[in-house]
Amino acid sequence: MSIATINPATGETVKTFTPLTNAEIDAALSLADGAFKDYRQVSFEQRSKWMKNAANLLEENAETYAKIMTLEMGKPVTSAIAEVKKSASVCRFYAENAAQFLADVPAESDASNSFIAYEPLGAILAVMPWNFPFWQVFRFAAPALMAGNVGLLKHASNVPQCALAIGEIFQKAGFPEGVFQTLLVGSDKVAQIITDDRVKAGTLTGSEPAGASLASLAGQNIKKTVLELGGSDPFIVLETADLNAAVDAAVTARMLNNGQSCIAAKRFILISTIADEFESRMAEKFAALKIGDPMLPDTEVGPLATPGILKELHQQVQSCVQAGAKVLTGGQPLESLGNFYPPTILTQIPEGTPAYSEEFFGPVALIFRVNSLEEAITLANSTIFGLGASAWTTNRAEQERCIRELEAGAVFINGLVKSDPRLPFGGIKRSGYGRELSSQGIHEFVNIKTVWIK
Ligand code: NAP
Q1: How remote is the CA of residue 151 from the centroid of ligand 1, in Å?
Q2: How do residues 185-212 score in pLDDT, each as one tens digit?
Q3: From 83, 91, 162, 262, the catalytic residue
Q4: 426 lies in a domain?
Q5: Does the active-site annotation cover 119?
Q6: 0.85 cut: is pTM over it?
Q7: Where would you tag: which of 45, 53, 96, 338 has the fewest CB atoms within 10 A of its CB?
């Protein structure tokens, strides 16, 4: 895959980039290794000042950065602006809380004094996806850098201008040279980087094969990894749900980022008593969404990021339809030079189709009907994924069962699944392991050092 900006709304190749040579990668790793030796000694106060500068730069230039994202991967510019601001918020969150999260913790033992200290590990490789090109990187970088680590970014090959802009932000914010570096490399160079002794750990957000590849290489070299992979999140609606709120949230949850979000609600599991009503309201709202040029502020659905994603999504839809699924709305790619796919709803989906086992990465809602909570939970859990789950009910007993029995890294009751710097984020099963955000996130890449003094 070449490293290039290709406008997904038009198919035009805007700019291509030359990947780093092996010698340049080697120099970058040496620079990171050297920078760590000094940076680990820098006070929290100083790191925090630089991190707040990064937040200011993001906020002051939100529109400029947002347009780069929209150009490279097609998200509506209004959501892109919100993403830049959210990236600033995670910088502020760790700037303000890192010292407290990583303060020594006293522990009772047979020593006269024993405690736990948290220390940085060194250079951490982050392999990142294109779908939230700023947010995904900042939610890695803010805790990693505040903990005293140094960051190496291998961003997705279709968002090189985002990758370079992020590198520049950390530099302009005042972080010393080598503390955060963008490496313009293809995925073929990830093995060389993660197995290098100067790199101490790795994190990957993306697909399962990519995650498995990074983690196995890291494992062979006894290095820790965090994986944030795919999801096929259930959105369960039960009899007592506020239907207006649930339908609105369902549309937002499925359409976020043109449907290309790991935590997008993908499977809508409806109790049969409310299913007709829910389906018709959802179909009406889907059909009314404004699809078009993502640079326009009122566009709600833009193009998919690449022609490959469009092709795969349509194949998944077609194989469900050929097996007997019904199309409530959408279902055919739009005629355009860009990668536009309309908001689509499938119902009456036969078992054994991709809807039951695969992630649909685009604006396609899959509707399933059930006759009991028991059935809803069984269906919700019947995938290889376990990222998020949303359940809608005002019945306390039903809420409790959903909270305890849904196999997911997060359960949201009467709300759509979202990320928040204050709450841990991550999955179970094949959605990955480890956590980002909150105090848990900053503890992933530190040496939890036991100190015992007599
Ligand atoms: P992808 O192909 O796995 O790409 C993600 C990153 O991994 C890119 O930087 C890519 O580089 C790199 N990569 C690809 N193959 C690799 C390999 N064999 N070894 C090492 N690195 C490799 O993922 P995608 O399809 O673009 O992204 C969508 C997926 O990400 C979805 O499944 C989505 O659910 C998941 N996602 C998860 C989360 C979460 O937090 N759980 C958040 C966002 C997205 P190149 O671009 O150079 O190929």
Answers
A1: 18
A2: 999 999 999 999 999 999 999 999 999 9
A3: 262
A4: no
A5: no
A6: yes
A7: 45
